[in-house]
Predict the structure.
Amino acid sequence: MFTIDNYLQEQSFRYDPVNGIRCLGRREDDLCKMQEIWDYCRSNQETLQCDLNIFYDMEVEPGISLCDWVFSNEGTGDQDVRNLLLYMIDSIREYEGNGDGEIEISLGSYENCVSTVDEYKDKRRKFLAELTDVGQFTEFMGSCFQNTAFSEDILTAMKRIPKFRDCTKQIVFNLSLLNDHAIEIYEKYNCDGAMAMKELSVRAAECTGDPAHKAYLKFPFSYTEEKDGGQRQYMIKQVECSPHMKLIRPDSNLRIYFFWFDHDIGDGKKVLIGHIGGHPY
């Protein structure tokens, strides 16, 4: 499986008034943005990595190291600001460099680094778009689209896409649109699917329904359900995914079949992707 090293740029913590980098105690907004990135990585069972010696010795205020600032309460900043870093710090690991790709993450803006969760997701999706092996692509894409639930057999049709490597950027573009905006657009139109598809068509090649083939457009999705005694039980649910985004151009046979959301799968917070590829009938 394709893996990412989430490298934390230690120098971005350094107090540097010449370049406008303030004392760490006054960088609450930057720390909040970094926490959002950290939460995203943690939900993928990933950590932030850096050179821990450089990190803890970094001068974050005049004459004060990061270690002294966060653990000895030296320098400026109230406890709430320090807690933002304390919340993350136990999960920051020594840099190993074993990943297939690397994303540099900084506290605030820093050259060649990402500093917000949206920048981080964009960078991660660029790696995905460059993957030409369909198996690797499928394994990695879930970590790039956390607001999406993929059907259990999503790989089956993707394996049959001709010249898959020529389609990856279009797949990533459309999945990004669905992941980031589909539910929001659907709810904006009070769950009027026709209006929602019309707006999606403006943003991409075309989005339309397929009511004539509903019987072929049911796909299996997994979820867990709490039973008596608090036990979680693994469940499979068939969901009809008739709306579809056309890939590349409006007359293309390649498409992404989806549904807006389901209250069982992802607690109604995830768009459902049933099929990526040619007609499933």
Observations:
- The radius of gyration is 22 Å.
- The chain has nine helices and 13 strands.
